[in-house]
Amino acid sequence: METLKGKTLFITGASRGIGKAIALRAAADGANIVIAAKTVEPNPKIPGTIFSAKEEIEAAGGKALACVVDVRFEAQIREAVDQAVSTFGGIDILVNNASAISLTGTVETPMKRFDLMHGVNTRGTFACSQACIPYLAKSHNPHILNISPPLNMVARWFAPHVAYTMAKFGMSLCVLGMAEELKPMGIAVNALWPRTVIATAAVQNLLGGDDTVRASRKPEIMADAAHVILTKPSSQFTGHFATDEDVLRASGVSDFSRYAVTPGMEDKDLTPDFFL
User: Fold this and answer.
1) What does pTM read for this prediction?
2) Quick one: pLDDT at residue 211?
3) Is residue 164 annotated as a catalytic residue, yes or no?
4) Which end of the chain is more exposed for a tag (fewer CB within 10 A), N or C?
5) Alpha-carbon distances of 91 from 7, 31, 85, 134, 246, rounded to whole Å
6) What is the Cα–Cα distance from 164 to 172, expressed in whole angstroms?
7) pLDDT at res. 206
8) Helices (H), 108-238
9) Is 109 in a helix, a strand, or coil?
């Protein structure tokens, strides 16, 4: 089985949710994790800080570096990258996971919220990629993985929340372009998106609460799918818009029941995610 042992992963938004799950899965292999996130003070509504994530990652078997990073600010990204290289000797994998969401229509979306989504999702992804590429180019098997959807250019995915869709698709457009641009460097660039809603703090607080969480899957399904992608040869797997379920099925998984938040809930009763 392929492993991430000794690899250094720079993961944005890794203090909780999908980002932390990916970090913990890599840590189980003995990977080095750079937690690039902005939460330093505990919040009762949104549990998890860069420091609590560091403790969990180290308990899982990895090494961790907690960096205060708001991906809207280039200087913070550059400082974290410098710290990562100084601490671990390089960067092998970038996971662009940090994201902001507001499922609001055009008139209902304040420009401050529009700017936040585009600053975190699209600009943050571009800026982190730009900062990490020189070090990824030196890695043996370098990957960039964006937690973003397939470019499904259908009006139904834009009409209810134009600003959010534009911001998430901006991350996916980075995959489309960078995969081809960075191919000569041997850097793989792929996207991963969940087939169903994933139980995260954002889902709990913004997207329907307990009922939605009960019909969701755990973040571990995204972590396991990310692990499959990130252990593939970068020269052979790039430019893909993958879904967690498809990736795991292709690797031999047929029973997804362990990922369900509600034990015994059938796959057909789970809530599908956006954009699919």
Assistant:
1) 0.96
2) 78
3) yes
4) N
5) 8, 11, 7, 9, 28
6) 13
7) 66
8) 111-117, 124-136, 155-158, 162-181, 201-206, 209-214, 220-230
9) coil
Closest CA to 15 of 162, 242, 40: 40
Residue for token digits 């995915």? 157
DSSP code of 33?
E
**In whole angstroms, how far apart are CA 219 and each of 9, 155, 188, 197, 203?**
18, 28, 23, 9, 12
Q: How far apart are CA 218 and CA 260, in angstroms?
A: 6
Residues 216/272, Cβ–Cβ less than 8 Å: no
Amino acid at 169: F
Q: Indicate which residue of 10, 126, 164, 193 is catalytic.
A: 164
The tens digit of pLDDT for each residue in 118-148 reads 999 999 999 999 999 999 999 999 999 999 9
- Picking from 9, 20, 43, the residue whose alpha carbon sits closest to that of residue 132 is 9
